[in-house]
Amino acid sequence: MATPVKVHGPPLSTAVSRVLACLIEKDVPFQLIPVNMAKGEHKSPDFLKIQPFGQVPAFQDEATSLFESRAICRYICEKYPEKGNKGLYGTNPLAKASIDQWVEAEGQSFNPPSSVLVFQLAFAPRMKLKQDQSLISQNEAKLEKVLDVYDKRLGESRFLAGDDFSLADLSHLPNAHYLVNAAERGELFTSKKNVERWWGEISSRDSWKKVVDMQKQST
Amino acid sequence: MVVKVYGPAFASPKRVLACLIEKEIEFEVVPVDLLKGEHKDPEFLKLQPLGTVPVTQDGDYVLYESRAIMRYYSEKYKSQGTDLLGETIEERGQVENWLEVEAHNFNPPVLNLTLHVMFSSKLGFPRDENLIKESEEKLGKVLDIYEERLSKCKYLAGDFFSLADLSHLPFTQYLVGPIGKEYMISSRKHVSAWWNDISSRPSWQKVLLLYPPPF
């Protein structure tokens, strides 16, 4: 029996949860290895050997060692094409390219403003850090514009890259989940008809519910 | 039918141009003047709703996001020209790893430097010296990690040139040129050797010759 892959990092981390969602969608057995970031374990010499930027997650599949959540997700899909959700990264080159395009859009346009908002609105208060109101309004405005584009796109297709749930939609789950459930910004999604429909569908997938459970159990 | 690449004067599209040349794929360019705001024209937004360059048009097939475009053409033409994806799934994993590092760790600070040092006066926004200083510090830390990585292997994903290295070409060219921070590269022995190697590839030299920057 193959050794389960290893994911290093806390499930509460958005990037870690991106990888967990992918592993569960793909039905790939994994072992989650905790990293206590409050104690600075992600900056320890041992951790820096597997992730030199001191960020989570880090990932190991036997001799292969990788980091960057979106790279890990792509690798999982390429390495295990026959497992779990076979269409997660497309079953033909055009489908795959469309998925890559929207994973990039997530990484380049959705992630930056949503990460700032998640940190400012969900994490900063819990860490007793002062919020930066101007940063919050700037990034809300940016995110609104991005979601306007998404709303138009989702009026043309059921999911971002086409008619099937894919890595492109999955990539949005972690930040969107916190915006809706921990930052009280659900309105960003519910105020736009197609975005609301899409968010409802992707967030109720079994795989994401399992990740949310893992997050709850880890607190 | 030849693939069209929009916005050749600017940095991100140059990733695609270098990639297509490495892959020996014929293409045409379509100028888009970002300084005149042509990327916000309704016609352009029909093509690319996020209003950024590059976009490629291959007959009816439209694709945007430079790294997605590079992946698509590198896979489609895997056996033609330079192999930019590695040979095995494991090597491909490393390429993806370092391409994401470029996108999320390298690009953000270097983009800030590009916008504020090169474009602030052209685009009419105030040059933020604090942001420039912070971005240089962040970029320095990233380059220290690259230095360590490149002391162990010749290129970022391993001992083969790949999309991960190529993706760095356009903005690093700005960094050592108009941004005026060549010392950030030349002060790091392995980063410097890597930069000299990748920037002297004929594909990159051709891009620089044929598609001058906007100013």
From TrEMBL, chain A:
It is an enzyme of class 2 (transferase). Its main location: cytoplasm. Keywords: Detoxification, Transferase. Residues 92-219 form the GST C-terminal domain. It comes from the Eukaryota. Its EC number is 2.5.1.18. It is found in: Cytoplasm, Cytosol. InterPro entries: Glutathione-S-Trfase_C-like, Glutathione-S-Trfase_C_sf, Glutathione_S-Trfase, Glutathione_S-Trfase_N, GST_C, GST_Phi_C, Thioredoxin-like_sf. Residues 3-84 form the GST N-terminal domain. CDD domains: GST_C_Phi, GST_N_Phi. PANTHER family: GLUTATHIONE S-TRANSFERASE RHO, GLUTATHIONE TRANSFERASE. Belongs to the GST superfamily. Phi family. This is glutathione transferase. It comes from Hibiscus sabdariffa.
UniProtKB/TrEMBL annotation, chain B:
InterPro entries: Glutathione-S-Trfase_C-like (IPR010987), Glutathione-S-Trfase_C_sf (IPR036282), Glutathione_S-Trfase (IPR040079), Glutathione_S-Trfase_N (IPR004045), GST_C (IPR004046), GST_Phi_C (IPR034347), Thioredoxin-like_sf (IPR036249). CDD domains: GST_C_Phi (cd03187), GST_N_Phi (cd03053). Transmembrane segments: none annotated. The keyword Transferase applies. It comes from Hibiscus sabdariffa (roselle). Residues 88-215 form the GST C-terminal domain. Its EC number is 2.5.1.18. This is glutathione transferase. It catalyses: RX + glutathione = an S-substituted glutathione + a halide anion + H(+). Belongs to the GST superfamily. Phi family.
